[in-house]
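Q: How do we represent a protein-ligand complex in a form that can be generated token by token?
A: Start from the inputs.
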Amino acid sequence: MTDAPPTLPSVTTPSAVLERTFGYSAFRGQQADIIDRVVSGGDALVLMPTGGGKSLCYQIPALVREGTGVVVSPLIALMQDQVDALGAVGVRAAFLNSTQDGQQRRDVEQAFLSGELDLLYLAPERLRVESTAALLDRGRISLFAIDEAHCVSQWGHDFRPDYLGLSMLHERWPDVPRIALTATATPATHREIAQRLDLGSAEHFVSSFDRPNIQYRIEPKTEPKQQLLKLLTTEHRGDAGIVYCLSRKSVEQTAQFLVDNGIPALPYHAGLDSGTRARHQSRFLREDGIVMVATIAFGMGIDKPDVRFVAHLDLPKSVEGYYQETGRAGRDGLPSTAWLAYGLQDVVQQRRMIQESDGDEAHRRRLQQHLDAMLALCETVECRRVQLLAYFGQASEPCGNCDTCLTPAESWDGTIPAQKLLSTVVRLWRERHQRFGAGHLIDILLGKRTPRVIEQNHVELKTFGIGTELSEQEWRDAVRQLLAQGLLAVASDGYGTLVLTEASASVLDGSRQVRLRRDPVKQTTRAMRTTGVDLPSDAQGLFERLRAWRADTARAQGVPAYVVFGDSTLRGIAVTRPSSLEELGTISGVGAKKLEVYGDAVLEVVGQSAVTAA
Ligand code: ADP
Ligand code: ZN
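Then emit the structure tokens for the protein with adenosine-5'-diphosphate bound:
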């Protein structure tokens, strides 16, 4: 909480709050309907993509209705930033979680009981404690917001057992409206949320999951670090972004590699102590242009709006995970990139990890299904976005902003090469009881007399040297795709050797045709851009000065830069060059409180720039 709770002028309608408090002129998408529903006391289940504007859907009803809005969120580490961001627009918010000492907690409880809080953030496990529930009983609750509602789903990838207890909200406080929100839900997860949270009478608001400002690109992995460096230096210099790697070791190595190449990068994984993790997260949020190299332990609930790219150096385990991770790019609606490098080794490794995973057969089958959907996305020759949205139950048209739309990939008839490869696998097994990995199989097909080929006397095999029509890389692409299509499998011997599947027979006997994707020679890139993208050149300089001012201000106040103003607001200022507080107040993102606190300083930066320009 900020020291003296600022007093808000009495504003009562949702659109008045939107304009005065948040500085926005119009609701987006379904916001107005959702807010009306909750303001009038009804329950709501909201599926809206990241960056769609979910927060206002409960914040505004909490400001309009009497009492305190109670927000259940699993993201303890981010509560401070959320509360700071609300404080910056004059909303009275606080949280109760395990990071506080007794006195801090008592202060918040007191503020709640005296009706001085508009919003109170709680971790779900708090609600299991009777004393917390008793506290809520003694105050006045305007609504319950259940954020990250997909955490209640056991099928999903973020399951939190404490979420199962949240059906108690309705039992204990039947008259308080509830709004559950998530950015990630397949149709099955959607149903599960409604059922487990006991939202039988809730109205469902399902927005399009599309994130049109994100450009999706998936390219073959050859030299991953160099490919990443190229992406960062040619398209994203100076931008904030996240790079995901599978292992702690590759996180460390990649972060070091970027630093060695002059890019401010920080590592983040569960092996770092919590102090280091918190420090790195805080620098990522607070400073401009930091690249976070992380395992998937990083990112849930990070609502930094100006993440310009999300890069994956390893294959994600599911489409849900991939969509959620890439969704952290471009919350502010400005152009952003989701980039993934993917290769044969990824498929072999993931198939192996599934075989070696704990859990029963059903669990492994589920992991397998998740992986298959992810592989299908990687290997498609159709629009990536069409495929992604279809996965979430939504039909769409080719998007024009993904790699396959921008640089179409061809498909070709790979039946004969597939037969050559599969029959090599068959012969080795039938004639010699041997199994090998992709590398050796390809050596045989290419007729390479490697020491191993000679030692094993594989020159004698009938398929030796029959595959010279493809290059080594083309063979690797083919093997990867056969694995992805389930026409070849990784043996469970832990060595990554390859075996046939039931479906292989139909290829060998010629009854099934194999279509393979030919990766375009020229990879999709876009022109070098910076955060000032598309700004007229005379606004560019002012934008940079405003960013510098914002960095200083944020540092002095100990808050993330975006809490001061988002990039899109700074762009608005740079383009309109307001000369009065009144004019400044009309720019999107400038509400009453920010105008009061930052208005003069911003006008000064604009004024100085007019002098320099003259
Ligand atoms: P989500 O939680 O759905 O990911 P947020 O609530 O963080 O999205 O909103 C994303 C961004 O869009 C924020 O910077 C927010 O201030 C902005 N925003 C939300 N609603 C509006 C609106 N009606 N007009 C302008 N900007 C908005
Ligand atoms: Zn597309």
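The chain has four domains: 14-206, 214-408, 411-518, 537-613. Residues 410 and 518 are 5 Å apart (CA to CA).
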